[in-house]
Amino acid sequence: MDKEFSLQAVPQSHRAGFLKMFVVMLGLTFFSASMLSGGELGLGLTMKEFIWMVLLGNLILGLYTSGLAFIAAKTGLSTHLLARYAFGEKGSYLASFLLGATQVGWFGVGLAMFAVPVHKVTGIDMWILIVVSGVVMTASAFFGMKALAILSFIAVPAIAILGSISVGIAVEDLGGIGELFAYEPEATIGLAAALTICVGSFASAGTLTPDFVRFANTKKTAVITTLIAFFIGNSLMFLFGAVGAISTGLGDISEVMFVQGLIIPAIIVLGLNIWTTNDNALYASGLGFSNITKIKKSKLVIFNGIIGTIFAMWLYNNFVGWLTLLGGALPPIGAILLADFFILNKGRYKKLEEMTFQTVRWPAIIAWVGGFASAQWLPGIPPLNGIISAVIIFVVLVLVTERAASTNKKVAIEKGA
Fold first, then answer.
1. Coiled coil: which residue ranges (predicted)?
2. Topology (CATH level 3) of domain 12-327
């Protein structure tokens, strides 16, 4: 039996309680890129503005991801299996490929993000660091949710405690909390731009929420753990980044710790932070390509891990811009899943094994293209533009095509009569 239930619903007997789901979701939100985004906000906003923007941004992210969490817990299905309902059997391959490919890309980038600074500080050969960390992270992702939970139980408190110690030192170096709140940025960031940075930092990865919370034992557990994880985990990463940037000019808390002389704690924090992120990325990529190939997720995790490890430095040096662009393609997928379940199907899906899926649902494909285009070119907050546009286009197209089909059917019946 596939214990990760790559191509079926997670049975209730294999569901997990609040604590396990909470640490897994916190591990997902402990993301180095969020600290860098926090650093960017910290240098461009006052501390009061920063707090309000982070809370508002994480509220938006929390609502988006908790909606997906509700669907996942109710159905027990991954993002990719849910995509079959909205996009069709073969149409879901588009969503799975985009989600899977971006996660393999970020896995490779994550390996390099660990190896490059550790090499600079310790002198250990870069490729030794990449290969060893790639093997270790791939091995843990191979064992699935159980390994993700164990890793998160270790990593989450370690990152939170060591990071908080470093932030405390940074605040002392600034002259205390009062000086932190008195900080005035030299070059300010507009509030709309700040909200864009906050929401955009995690909207893509948040689309993968169902891959993890489908294991939640209740819908309440799924929604609450997801919502709290974004408010605590993502806010903490942004705070670490902001304080570090204001104090030292560096956004990543591990880099701040290197400057503070906390070499070993810095390597621990950096390693665990990237490990939790990379494990989640590799796990999700395995589910995505399993939907396309029907090959067991664990085998695909090994293959994806090898590819990400081999191309780590190339991805790090050449592909981050493309990954960011591709990341803009992911939130419209989640938006279409939400619209299909809550608006068009009134919060109810038939069981997976009872469904006869359309090959491709073209309204979903067109809505995804429209959402992606809106995220790239409309003014405002790109991820929100993509989400809202995809929902509107999808719902309108489905209703119009269904009405047209109904009208044609009536005409055919009348002619037959």
1. none
2. Hydantoin permease (1.10.4160)
Q: Which two tokens stand for residue 245?
A: 């940037």
Q: Which two tokens stand for residue 9?
A: 């619903």
Q: Confirm if 162 and 269 have CB atoms less than 8 A apart.
A: yes
Around Cβ 50, how many Cβ atoms within 10 Å?
A: 26
Higher-confidence position of 201 and 134 = 134
Instruction: Tell me which of 144-153, 290-299, 377-386 is least confident.
Output: 377-386
pLDDT of residue 307: 97
Q: How far is CA 105 from CA 10, 257, 309, 323, 326, in A?
A: 27, 27, 10, 7, 10
φ, ψ for residue 346, nearest 5 deg: 55, 35
Q: Kindly report the CA angle at 7 between 2 and 8, in degrees rounded to 5?
A: 85
Q: What percent of the chain has pLDDT over 90?
A: 68
pLDDT digits (tens, 9 = 90+) for 167-217: 999 999 999 999 999 999 988 888 888 888 888 878 878 999 999 999 999
Q: Which residues contact 154 (CB under 8 A, 6 or more apart)?
A: 272
SS3 16: strand
Q: What percent of the chain has pLDDT over 70?
A: 98
The residue to which tokens 């864009």 are assigned: 196
Give the whole-angstrom CA distance, residue 299 versus residue 275. Answer: 19
Distance CA 241, CA 248 (A): 10
Q: By the 8 A CB rule, do 382 and 376 touch?
A: yes
pLDDT of residue 417: 55
pLDDT bracket for residue 299 (50, 70, 90)? very high
Say how far apart CA 177 and CA 168 lie, in whole Å.
Answer: 9
18, 1, 62: which is closest to 215 by C-alpha? 18
| Angstrom distances, CA of residue 340 to CA of 194, 333, 363 | 30, 11, 11
Q: Which of 321, 339, 26, 289 is nearest to 154 (CA)?
A: 26
Task: Provide φ and ψ at 402, rounded to 5°.
Answer: -65, -40
| Rounded Cα distance, 305 and 285, in Å | 10
Instruction: Report the alpha-carbon distance of residue 64 to residue 199 in Å, rounded.
Output: 10
